[in-house]
Specification:
The protein is α/β, with parallel strands linked by helices. Helix 1 runs parallel beside helix 5, helix 1 packs across helix 6 and helix 8 packs parallel to helix 14. It is globular. It is built from 20 helices and 20 strands.
């Protein structure tokens, strides 16, 4: 049997790849929906070239009868729609991989890698179906047949996706049916998912990172979103633009990132709850505006979706290299909060927390994600999305209102123009409690001390890092953001009774209890998607204890579960460094 190796695995990992423009994402969306509706759990991850045409894109769909939240290297079924398969995909092919592709189209490509190759005449079948564009529907049907799933869900999907285009609908349905019949014959009467029990629970909602951040911001009452489109952050701008009326939000695509941050600061001063969404290069341009928010004590949320730099770097790839940028951007010293969600559920909650923190402490809050996280998705129970409650409204100002009133916690009453009788001052210069500019040295110190006192309250309310493992651990693994589910699963594979995990979703201010856990650790390993171990250096600077060894990745690709397990196994067994 072609898929006998899958009986030993808890899941099935499928990868589809093909040239840009062949509709890989459409197939991904359809398959994910069908798989979830059939009662299985799905995890998906997408990677794509930075060229609109000529690049070769791919998507991974991991299927299981238990929840799965992380990227695998293993490829059980590879569906190839066009030649020139990227090297990083080729390297993941093993003798247990089944490749489904058009031998004539591929001209022998991939047949020398030891995998099982099944010839599918995609070009011929697509031509018969109505054109090359229908090759994706044929491939989708083949994969459904191979998995042992029906086509009813595909028919529904096509009718919804192409509503009003009857000819397109019927041709896609017919093409999928042709592929499905072929897939059933390939599976030899036993689908790749056979033996796995579907789940009858309620985990029907499929959520990706981009939508999770957007929905969390909406739940917090975000009323103004501004951005200059920049991959991989554009999904948040697009989601808000599509749903602006439902969310009661104004969405503005501006000419550059300098405009974006300054518009957000102005909107916040006027009483809006703004969010800016950008990537590293755009955030770099926002430094002066971020500093303006600091001195004006203006609440603003910035979503920073990371990708490799320096400069343009790799525009459609992933990295965790902007922690330092987020922490130190903006001239002068002013408080800020930095978060980095690791799951879709926490992205929904953390986007809300960013607004709550920004509004309470009248300061910038930054949400760090990355390309991998933004494009990854899995299914979940909508009830698992936690609503934190709407932030309080601004203060109705009295006649003697002083915008920057000194206070023990550094937080002044937050008023906005037109709401009350007071005058709401604001200035980019150092100012007094009313907002008037004075070059007074004692005033300067008093106002700076006031602003920095906010950090005490922010630290007291900081999210503690997640700890899992034995209390008497001998070795500690630390990670942050999108790597958390990957490292967690990798550690479960290693089954080490001496090792614990400390996973961070708030990176500044750091929770005070962090130092106690670090101090207890005889040996610490950090796992980070950058080349310098930025979290480890931050922990060293704050608590005097960073990592002893680091597992780093900065190729533009995300860690896989198997890679982390292998590299951690080497380091934790004392076999030397593994940077």
């Amino acid at each position: 049997m072609r898929f006998s190796a899958l009986k030993k695995s808890k899941d099935v990992c499928c990868v589809l790849c093909g040239a840009a423009g062949l509709g890989i994402q459409t197939v991904e969306d359809m398959l994910a929906r069908i798989i979830v509706d059939e009662g299985f759990f799905v995890f998906g991850s997408r990677e794509y070239m930075s060229r609109v045409r000529g690049g070769n894109n791919s998507t991974e769909i991991r299927i299981s009868d238990v929840p799965v939240h992380a990227l695998l290297d293993r490829i059980d079924i590879l569906v190839v729609l066009s030649p020139n398969v990227r090297q990083n995909i080729r390297e993941r092919i093993t003798g247990d991989t089944v490749i489904l592709g058009d031998r004539e189209l591929l001209n022998g490509e991939l047949e020398d890698l030891g995998a099982s190759f099944v010839d599918i005449p995609l070009s011929k079948l697509a031509k018969e179906a109505g054109g090359k564009i229908y090759s994706n529907s044929i491939a989708a049907g083949v994969l459904l047949g191979v998995l042992g799933l029906g086509t009813e869900g595909a028919d529904t999907f096509y009718r919804r996706r192409f509503a009003g285009k009857d000819d397109v609908i019927e041709k896609n349905i017919a093409a999928c049916a042709v592929g499905h019949e072929l897939g059933l014959s390939i599976s030899e009467g036993e689908g790749a998912l056979s033996g796995r029990r579907p789940n009858t629970g309620t985990e029907k909602m499929i959520l990706n990172g981009s939508d999770a951040v957007s929905l969390g911001a909406m739940a917090a009452g975000c009323t103004f979103v501004t951005a200059y489109p920049m991959s991989p952050a554009t999904g948040v701008l697009s989601f808000f633009a599509k749903n602006a009326e439902k969310a009661g939000a104004v969405v503005e695509q501006v000419e550059d990132e300098i405009s974006a941050i300054n518009m957000a600061v102005g909107a916040s001063y006027a009483g809006a709850r703004p969010m800016v969404t950008t990537s590293g290069g755009g955030f770099a341009l926002m430094g002066e505006g971020l500093s303006l928010a600091g001195v004006m004590e203006t609440p603003v949320v910035v979503h920073l979706a990371q990708r490799p730099g320096p400069a343009t770097g790799m525009a459609t790839r992933t990295e965790q290299a902007d922690l330092d940028l987020a922490l130190f951007s903006g001239h002068g010293e002013f408080p800020r909060a930095i978060f980095a969600p690791g799951t879709m559920e926490s992205a929904f909650a953390i986007a809300q927390r960013a607004f709550l923190t920004a509004l309470k402490y009248q300061t910038p809050a930054i949400v760090l994600t990355d390309q991998y996280f933004m494009n990854a998705f899995y299914n979940l129970d909508p009830e698992s999305l936690e609503y934190l409650g709407e932030p309080p409204l601004p203060t109705e100002t009295p006649e003697d209102y002083r915008r920057y009133e000194d206070s023990p916690d550094g937080c002044s009453p937050f008023g906005v123009p037109g709401w009350g009788k007071g005058i709401v001052g604001a200035d980019s210069h150092e100012h007094d409690e009313i907002g008037h500019v004075y070059e007074d040295f004692k005033l300067r110190k008093r106002m700076q001390d006031k602003r920095l006192r906010k950090l005490d309250g922010m630290a007291a309310e900081a999210l503690p890092p997640f700890f899992s493992g034995p209390e008497g651990f001998e070795k500690l693994v630390i990670c942050w953001g999108s790597t958390i589910p990957i490292v967690r699963e990798a550690l479960s594979l290693l089954e080490r009774s001496d090792t614990a995990l400390l996973a961070f979703e708030q990176l500044w201010p750091l929770h005070g209890g962090t130092g106690e856990v670090l101090a207890k650790a005889p040996f610490i390993v950090s796992v980070e998607g950058n080349s310098t171990g930025q979290l480890s250096r931050l922990l060293q600077s704050v608590f005097g204890r960073g990592s002893d060894e680091a597992i780093l990745k900065y190729s533009g690709l995300q860690f896989s579960v198997e890679e982390v397990a292998e590299r951690l196994g080497t380091v934790l067994s004392g076999k030397g460094g593994n940077r």
